[in-house]
Design a protein that fits this description.
seven-stranded mixed beta sheet, 6 helices, binds S-adenosylmethionine
Length: 179
């Protein structure tokens, strides 16, 4: 089974969780991007030292951490799940990356991305669709968006790359969009 199908299958659990969510809505299950694919995503967006990177739905913080540590970015994650937000913030502190990396515990649909040079997403198509108007309104010209496995409906990607094997025999597709 592909990781894409597994993530869609996890949607059932998300739908239950959404009923509890008063402030905002859980738009995707937690399903981490393999580290090899994280690096490809950041390379694909050509992240440069000092740029601002946001990972929307940052999970355990792996994209934020790599963006700060390996690419020298100012990296921000937005995570709805409190435990994941707390754990990833603690990991950032332990790694002495707090000056370069931060996790916001909140709803990705209620943040300001006007400072972003790069946005990364690994979300379901429905979530990408909900985000699109916000990103169209807020993102500056030249900002890049990298989407893992699920396209942003309504946008035409500039580039697509297929990663045939993530080390565990799974393939992944990444899409690059430019504003
Ligand atoms: C598929 S995981 C991706 C995690 C991480 N970006 C990665 O690629 O490893 C999606 C994440 O989005 C979070 N999420 C779902 N809805 C959200 C919302 N409305 N606001 C912020 N985070 C959300 C989930 O809790 C989950 O951690």
């Amino acid at each position: 089974m592909t990781n894409r199908r597994e993530m869609i299958a996890a949607l059932g659990a998300v739908a239950l969780g959404a009923q509890e969510a008063k402030k905002g809505e859980k738009l995707a299950p937690y399903y981490p991007t393999p580290e090899l694919v994280v690096e490809k995503m950041l390379q694909f967006a050509a992240v440069k030292r000092g740029e601002t990177v946001f990972d929307l739905g940052s999970g355990d913080g792996r994209i934020v951490i790599m963006a700060a540590q390996k690419f020298g970015a100012n990296a921000m994650g937005v995570e709805f799940d409190k435990d994941l937000a707390v754990q990833s913030s603690e990991r950032i502190k332990r790694m002495n990356l707090a000056s370069k990396a931060k996790i916001i515990h909140g709803d990705m649909l209620q943040q300001d991305y006007s400072s972003a040079d790069v946005i990364t997403v690994y979300l379901l198509p429905v979530a990408n669709e909900k985000l699109r108007p916000l990103l169209e309104k807020q993102l500056k010209k030249g900002a890049r968006i990298v989407a893992h496995d699920f396209e942003v409906g309504g946008w035409k990607y500039d580039k697509q790359e297929i990663i045939e094997d993530d080390g565990e025999g799974r393939s992944h597709t990444i899409f690059l969009y430019k504003r």
